[in-house]
Amino acid sequence: MARTKTPSRDAYVCSECGWTTAKWVGRCGECQQWGSVVEQGTRTNSLHRTTTAVAPSQHAVPISQVRGEAAHRTVTGVGELDRVLGGGIVPGAVVLLAGEPGVGKSTLLLEVAAAWARRGRRTLYVTGEESAAQVRMRAERTADLSDELYLAAETDLGTVLGHVEQVSPTLLVVDSVQTMQADTADGTAGGVTQVREVTSTLVRAAKQRHMAVVIVGHVTKDGSIAGPRSLEHLVDVVLSFEGDRHSGFRMVRATKNRFGPADEVGCFEMRENGIVEVADPSGLFISTGGAGQPVPGTCITVTVEGRRPLLAEIQSLVANSPLQVPRRTNQGVDGSRVAMLTAVLERRARQPLGNKDVYVSTVGGARVFDPAADLAIALAIASGTRDIGLPPALMALGEIGLAGELRRVPGVARRVSEAVRLGFRTILVPASSEGDLDRMPGTVRVLAVESVGDALGLFGLMGGNGRA
User: According to the UniProt record, where is the region Lon-protease-like (predicted)?
Assistant: First the structure.
């Protein structure tokens, strides 16, 4: 039977990013690369074809008879990473770690490989971006040398599999998947076809040998993982390595985990001698703590990253604007959220913000997108407007609606417990959350308010003659 094209809605695909279109174009509409859009392979008309049955090499067995010991977790030796993975890495699991350039992916994985090898387990670290001597130099600086840690600088996938046969590691680290190239696939290294073929081959090798595999992935300019979307479906765990290169704080966030929670985070700090774990990161995001002199325009809140409560300090600066359209500058917070809160403060709490520049920022490079931080942002802006400092041991928690009401937020008890542990004695919460705080120490004062106007009135920050 002659090969015929099957009509397809998206007949052309970009070989660089996987973008599809119904007709050929010279420039990709997603990654803006010229000449990367090619026609997808023709498909045979298989409506009347059937696949020949093949005898399986292993018989199917009842699920109750499958041995579960082979899937027991193994700790990596890095506690914060084990926390994100759910207690350790499962043999045969494939983990994808993605992050921006220079954030410290290679440094973290070299630390993981060395910690794994120090426990007497053989590790193979394959680098396609550096030479073996360069990796050795970094390992000396971070004290990550071990006799069970094997190093290879390769970009050919077949050679990498040969190293796996020779070394027989229990952990394989590939840095990175975009530099590897397979002879069985077309295209250049880092392209859609190559990335898919390399990842599929590594997944098969991991399952057959019960070998844990960690793959480094690049990200695009908008922060998403580079390559085809199927890359994330092929692997078992997807981790995102986040952090500002100008700040030492780093965070590993699980976005997919077949063997554990997908809402956990691990905290690290980048130093001159490598990357270290931060078991209690709340102190990195506050500058005044629970004591000290009141500073106008400053308020503390507690956000939840995954299941971990983290303190965050919100700072604001309000000044008269010489411009016709005042500035609204934000760093570390959601700009649209701050704009909404500014409008609520002006309309519901009579704060004179219409002709003032408003700057809102976080301390320590923290990124706060939790709606529970609304009340802290509003208090910081009002405090900066009136130039009145809030009590130094105050923690504010609550989501603000357009009518100025305070809404209940999840995990109030956990957030308040973290604030109390760090020395905060005055807790401001929505009135609807008061029932969640049954057992509080006698030294802690819980203030329950119904609206942002009531909260500002407690500290003399209300504008005009009271609530609007």
Answer: 357-468
Per-residue pLDDT tens for 150-183?
999 999 999 999 999 999 999 999 998 999 999 9
pLDDT digits 0-9 by tens, 130-141: 999 999 999 999
* Length of the chain measured in residues: 468
Is 77 marked as binding a ligand? no
Task: For Cα atoms 61, 64, 65, give the angle at the middle one, nearest 5 degrees.
Answer: 55
Angle between helices 192-209 and 157-167 (to 10 degrees): 10
Domain 72-279 and domain 284-458 have a common topology: no
Q: Residue 101 annotated as binding? A: yes
102 is in an annotated binding site: yes
**Any idea what DSSP says for residue 280?**
-
Read off the tokens for 365.
Answer: 């490079």
Is 99 known as a binding-site position? yes
* 352 known member of a binding site: no
* H or E stretch at 223: none
CATH number at 284-458: 3.30.230.10
Mean pLDDT score, 39-46: 52
Question: Domain boundaries in the chain?
Answer: 9-43, 72-279, 284-458
Q: Tell me: is residue 130 an annotated ligand-binding position.
A: no
The rounded Cα 323 to chain-centroid distance in angstroms is 37
* Secondary structure, 3-state, 373-405: HHHHHHHHHHHHHHCCCCCCCEEECCEECCCCE
Residue 466 known to bind ligand: no
131 upstream amide cis, omega within 30 of 0 = no
The CATH number of domain 72-279 is 3.40.50.880:
no
Q: Are 377 and 332 in contact (CB under 8 A)?
A: no
Q: 219-226: long-range contacts at Cβ-Cβ below 8 A with a sequence spacing of 24 or more?
A: 219/98, 219/99, 219/100, 220/17, 220/31, 223/100, 225/96, 225/98, 226/17, 226/178, 226/190
Q: What are phi and psi of 313, to 5 degrees?
A: -105, 125
Q: Are 406 and 386 in contact (CB under 8 A)?
A: no
